[in-house]
Design a protein that fits this description.
It comes from Paenibacillus cremeus. GO terms for molecular function: DNA-binding transcription factor activity; sequence-specific DNA binding. Keywords: Cytoplasm, DNA-binding, Phosphoprotein, Transcription, Transcription regulation, Two-component regulatory system. This is Response regulator. Helix 2 runs parallel beside helix 3. This protein has 4 domains: 127 residues, Rossmann fold (3-Layer(aba) Sandwich); 149 residues, Reverse transcriptase/Diguanylate cyclase domain (Alpha-Beta Plaits), CATH 3.30.70.270; 100 residues, no CATH class; 111 residues, Arc Repressor Mutant, subunit A (Orthogonal Bundle), CATH 1.10.10.60. Helices cover 57% and strands 11% of the residues. Strand 4, helix 4 and strand 5 form a beta-alpha-beta unit.
Length: 547
C-alpha cells in the first residue's frame, strides 16, 4: 500500500454488499486502500482498537451492535476516524443521529458511484489538511521543546534583573511552562565571578569554557542538596544563578557556595568569588535577591576575591563612609624625586590600607589609581623624559592589566609594578634639558599644524596618532601651552584664514569667497566661521573681501 494512501474499514453484515463496495470504484485512484472488513459492530470495534483507520464506512442496520452504537463506542474511546454511514432506510432520525455522532456523510443504498466518489474526495482533502496541520503543530512543538532551555534562561534572567510586571497567577503559569518550581520554600539569587578571568585568558572562547565549567559545578553542587538551580550567563562575564530552595536557611546556602568554591579551587585551580542575596518567599521577589548579590559583589574590591560574600542588612551602611583622597602630592613628589624606593612602597601600602579602612568603592579606588599615574607622569616629564608609547592605553601590557584590576591587593601589586618598573625605568634614562613643551605636546602641535584644514580633526584623533590617552593629552596640552587643544586648533585656523585674506592679490580678492576661505582652514559652516573670525579679529571676513 502506498504510504500516502488512507486506510479504510468497511462494516456491513451483508457479504455481497461489502464486495460491491470493494469493486464499485477505483479506491487506489482516489487515494484510499480498503485494509479490513467486519460483518458486525463488535468485530469492527475490536479492529478499530487494534489498528488505525482513517475512514470507516458502516451500515446503520446490523444485528447486535448497530452502526450507530458502534460509532458512539468509537467516540467514547476517542478514536478519531472519519465515518460514512450507509443505510437502506431514508429515516430522519437516523440522519440526525449520524450528524450528532460527527459522521462526514450519510448515503442511501443502493450506493451511487458518483456520490460515493464525491464523498471520498471531500474526506481525503479534510484528512490531508488535518495531517498537514498536525505535522505543522508537531514541528512547532518540537521547535518549542528545543528552544525551551533558551526561553527558560530568558525568563529567569528577566525575573532576576527586573521586578516582574505579571501578576502572581500569570507568573505561576509561566513558571509551570518553563518547568521552574513555582511553590518552593524560598527563592534566592547569587553571582559567581571568576577572579581575573580577563587578565588570565585573552580569548573569549577560553573564558567561555571556564564559565561553562564553573556553571556546571555550581549546578551539580546545588542539585545534590535538592536545590533547583539554573546558572546562566550574566553581564560583564559574571555567572547569574537562580535558586529555588527546599526548607533551609541562608547559612546552609552559604555553606553550599563555599563547598562549590572549594571544589573549583582544588580541581580547576582557579579562584571564584560568590556573592549571595537573601532568601525570599516568593518567585516574584527573586529580583531583590539578585540586586543584593550585585551590591555585595562590589565589596570584593575591598575584601578580596576567592570567597563567599553573603548579603546582610548591616552592609547597607558601607557606602556611607566619607572618603578623603589619601594622597599628599608633595610627599609623593619628594619621595619620587629622591628615588626613595622604601618610602614609595610604604606610601603605596598606606594608600591601599586607607581604601580598606574607609570601605571605599572601586570607583574611588580607580580615581586614586589615576592620581598615582598622574604623579608618575609628572615626574618623568619633569626629568625631561618622555612617556612610553601607548601610555594609558590598553595596547600597553601594564595598562591593560590596570583596566582588569578587581581587588585592592591587585591594585597594590600594580602600583608597585608601575612605579618600580615603568617609572623607574624612565627615570633611569639619561635626562635631557626640558624645553618649553614636552615631546607629547610638540607632537600634538605638529599634528594640528599638519591637519588643521581637515574639519574632522579632534583631540581623540590626535591622541590616537601620537599614541597617548586623550584625557592625558588634554591635560598636558593645557598645562604646557596654557590653552586647551580645541582653542589652539581654532586660533591656528583663524590665523591661517587671515593670512589667506592678507596674501591674496586685489584681483584674487574679487573671486575669493568666504566659503572658500572657511573650507580651506577646516570650517565646514561659513556662517560659524564668520562668527569665530569676528570674535577674534573684530571684523567679519566679508568686510575684508569688500575693502
Amino acid at each position: 500500500m502506498p504510504v500516502d494512501h488512507l486506510q479504510v474499514l468497511i462494516v456491513d453484515d451483508e457479504y455481497y454488499f461489502r464486495q460491491l463496495l470493494l469493486h464499485l470504484i477505483d479506491w487506489p485512484a482516489l487515494g484510499f486502500t480498503v485494509t479490513a472488513e467486519a460483518e458486525n459492530g463488535a468485530e469492527a470495534l475490536e479492529l478499530a482498537h487494534s489498528r488505525k483507520f482513517d475512514l470507516i464506512i458502516a451500515d446503520i442496520n446490523m444485528p447486535g451492535m448497530t452502526g450507530l452504537d458502534f460509532v458512539e463506542a468509537l467516540r467514547l474511546a476517542a478514536i478519531p476516524a472519519k465515518v460514512i454511514f450507509i443505510t437502506s432506510y431514508d429515516i430522519f432520525e437516523y440522519a440526525r443521529a449520524a450528524v450528532a455522532l460527527g459522521a462526514s456523510h450519510y448515503l442511501l443504498k443502493p450506493v451511487d458511484e458518483e456520490e460515493l466518489e464525491k464523498a471520498l474526495k471531500e474526506i481525503r482533502e479534510e484528512l490531508l489538511q488535518q495531517r498537514r496541520l498536525s505535522e505543522t503543530a508537531a514541528g512547532l512543538k518540537l521547535q518549542l521543546e528545543r528552544a525551551k532551555p533558551l526561553l527558560r534562561e530568558q525568563f529567569l534572567r528577566q525575573h532576576m534583573l527586573h521586578e516582574p510586571a505579571e501578576g502572581p497567577e500569570v507568573l505561576q503559569e509561566q513558571a509551570k511552562f518553563y518547568e521552574v518550581p513555582a511553590n518552593a520554600c524560598g527563592y534566592a539569587a547569587l553571582i559567581a565571578e571568576i577572579d581575573e578571568l580577563a587578565l588570565r585568558y585573552n580569548k573569549e572562547q577560553e573564558r567561555q569554557l571556564w564559565r561553562f565549567a564553573v556553571k556546571n559545578i555550581v549546578q551539580e553542587t546545588m542539585e545534590a542538596s535538592g536545590v533547583y538551580c539554573a546558572a546562566i550567563d550574566g553581564d560583564d562575564g559574571k555567572i547569574a544563578v537562580f535558586l529555588a530552595l527546599p526548607e533551609f536557611g541562608s547559612s546552609r546556602l552559604t555553606e553550599l557556595c563555599e563547598r562549590a568554591r572549594s571544589f573549583i579551587n582544588g580541581r580547576m585551580r582557579i579562584f571564584v568569588t560568590f556573592a549571595v542575596g537573601q532568601i525570599y518567599e516568593s518567585l516574584s521577589q527573586a529580583h531583590l535577591s539578585y540586586a543584593e548579590a550585585l551590591y555585595v559583589l562590589k565589596h570584593k574590591f575591598i575584601q578580596g576575591g576567592n570567597r563567599v560574600i553573603a548579603y546582610a542588612p548591616d552592609r547597607e551602611g558601607w557606602d556611607g563612609f566619607v572618603f578623603s583622597l589619601p594622597i599628599d602630592r608633595s610627599e609623593w613628589v619628594s619621595i619620587l624625586r629622591n628615588n626613595d624606593r622604601e618610602g614609595l612602597l610604604t606610601k603605596i601600602r598606606e594608600t591601599c590600607q586607607r581604601l580598606i579602612d574607609t570601605q571605599a568603592g572601586k570607583e574611588m579606588a580607580l580615581f586614586v589609581l589615576m592620581e598615582c599615574i598622574s604623579l608618575g607622569s609628572a615626574i618623568i616629564l619633569e626629568r625631561g623624559g618622555s612617556l612610553p608609547k601607548a601610555w594609558l592605553m590598553e595596547s600597553h601590557p601594564l595598562f591593560k592589566q590596570m583596566y582588569g584590576i578587581e581587588t585592592v591587593d591587585a591594585m597594590e601589586r600594580w602600583l608597585q609594578c608601575f612605579f618600580g618598573e615603568l617609572v623607574a625605568a624612565e627615570l633611569s634614562k639619561p635626562s635631557s634639558p626640558r624645553g618649553k613643551s614636552s615631546e607629547i605636546v610638540q607632537k600634538a602641535i605638529g599634528y594640528i599644524q599638519e591637519h588643521y584644514a581637515d574639519e574632522a580633526v579632534t583631540l581623540q584623533l590626535a591622541s590616537r596618532s601620537i599614541g597617548v590617552n586623550p584625557s592625558y593629552l588634554s591635560h598636558m596640552f593645557k598645562k604646557e601651552t596654557g590653552i586647551a587643544f580645541t582653542e589652539y586648533l581654532s586660533d591656528l585656523r583663524l590665523e591661517r584664514a587671515m593670512e589667506l585674506l592678507r596674501e591674496a592679490s586685489p584681483a584674487g580678492l574679487v573671486s575669493l569667497k568666504v566659503v572658500d576661505v572657511s573650507q580651506s582652514v577646516g570650517y565646514a559652516d561659513p556662517y560659524y566661521f564668520s562668527r569665530c573670525f569676528k570674535k577674534k579679529f573684530g571684523i567679519v571676513p566679508s568686510k575684508i573681501l569688500q575693502s
